[in-house]
Each structure stands twice: as C-alpha cells, then as structure tokens.
Amino acid sequence: MDVKLEESWKTLLKDEFDKEYFKYLTTFVREQYKTKKIYPPASLIFNALNLCSFDNVKVVILGQDPYHGYNQANGLSFSVNDGIPIPPSLQNIYKEIKSDIGVTVPKSGNLQRWAKQGVLLLNATLTVQAGIANSHQGYGWEEFTDAIVKVVSEQKEHVVFILWGSYAQKKGAVIDESKHLILNSPHPSPFSADRGFFGSKPFSKTNEYLTKHKLNPINW
C-alpha cells in the first residue's frame, strides 16, 4: 500500500505497521486494488489523516466504512466528492446543523473544509469493494483505526468525540471520558435519525466545549 501518510500520524502509528495484522491487511488491500474496483481511490485511503494532522485534531467523527457507490468515497467519513448527490445520512446531518446553529445547508457534500479545521472524519474500515457494503470489514482495518482512536484519547486533551450509532459507540469504548467530551446519539441514517439524532445538537455542544477550553470552534 504505497500511500503517503502525514508525518505526525506516521510517527505515532509506526508500531502498527510492523504488526502481523497490518502486513496481512496491506497484502489484501493491494491485491484488491489490482483485481477489483475499490473505493476510495488508493491515493485517498488515508485522506482523513492527511487532511487533519494529529496536532490539529479537535473533533473526531467516527463512521463505519466508505460509500460503495460510483465516485462517492473520498476518504472522509460521511463525505462525498463535489458534484455527487448528498447521501441521506449527510442530508440529515446538514438538517441538524441548520436546526442546531442556523447554518445554511451547503450544496456540496464534500467535508474537506471540516477536516482542515481539525475534524478527523474517520471510518472504521478505510476501503470497500464497489457495490458491496462492508466488504472489507474483518481484514484488519478496524484494529488500525482502533489504534488511531486510542492514540488520540491517550495523547491529547479536550477532544470532542461524536459517536453516532451503536457501532461508533462500541468503537469509542477506549476513549478517556475524564479528559474528552463524548457525544452519543442515534445514527443520522433515515432509519434512526428520528430516534434521537434530530435535536441532539452535537454541533453547538462541540463548539461550546472547544470555546470553553480556549480552542477555536468549528465553522460547520
């Protein structure tokens, strides 16, 4: 997997690269890209880390795996490329932003602007086969992204972890609540958004916490 990784993450995660699971994962993913249609493009596998260095992380939003539709995935959880129709979960996220803080809903679903402000948009699984949701689960990505969550929890303070749905909440079990803010709610999917995602106000709560700890709020 010849993908450039931002230097701060490369240093912090270097021990992972020598572990057997990561060697297996690398072999598996490389072969998948050679033989099948895989998303996101190989150059964007680590986009979440490359756009948001460790030092800049203020917020972590955990997703499950990349979109598997044509040209949707860009390496950031919940985000799609410019010009791609906004998926239902992200439409609901935008609705909650408007309700919570009054921001006009953007026309683009590309969340790079969040990443560049310190929002780590991390999927648990970083690759997927076209048309087959969750197809790369269980090959090692989860262990790698667990290590990312753990290092943020252990080595930073006053990070907001936004955990939507049971999958993200289980993955967040390693987070130290004594020095970080954890915001749990149902997933923004149309199947669950009405069960408590709408009205949960994660965006105003995030900015209030960041401001309280003398960190710049996010321009959602």
Short description:
The chain is an alpha/beta fold and 220 residues long. It is built from nine helices and six strands, in the order αααβαβααββαβαβα.
Main sheet overview: 4 strands, parallel
Catalogue the unreliable spans. none
Q: Which strand order do you get reading across the main beta sheet?
A: 3-2-5-6
Spatial shape:
globular
Give me the CATH architecture, please: 3-Layer(aba) Sandwich
* Fourth-tier CATH superfamily name: Uracil-DNA glycosylase-like domain
* Number of individual domains: 1
**In terms of structural class, how would the helical and strand content be classed?**
alpha/beta
**Could you say what the CATH topology is called?**
Uracil-DNA Glycosylase, subunit E
Radius of gyration (CA) equals 17 Å
Structural account:
By secondary structure, the chain is an alpha/beta fold. The protein has one domain (7-213): Uracil-DNA glycosylase-like domain (Uracil-DNA Glycosylase, subunit E, 3-Layer(aba) Sandwich). Helix content is 37%, strand content 11%. The chain has nine helices and six strands, in the order H-H-H-E-H-E-H-H-E-E-H-E-H-E-H. The chain has helices at 7-12, 14-17, 20-35, 47-51, 88-101, 112-115, 141-155, 165-171, 202-212; strands at 38-39, 59-63, 119-123, 128-129, 160-164, 181-185. The strands form two sheets. A four-stranded parallel beta sheet has the order 3-2-5-6. Strands 1-4 form a two-stranded antiparallel ribbon. Strand 5 (160-164), helix 8 and strand 6 (181-185) form a beta-alpha-beta unit. The two termini are 33 Å apart. Excises uracil residues from the DNA which can arise as a result of misincorporation of dUMP residues by DNA polymerase or due to deamination of cytosine.
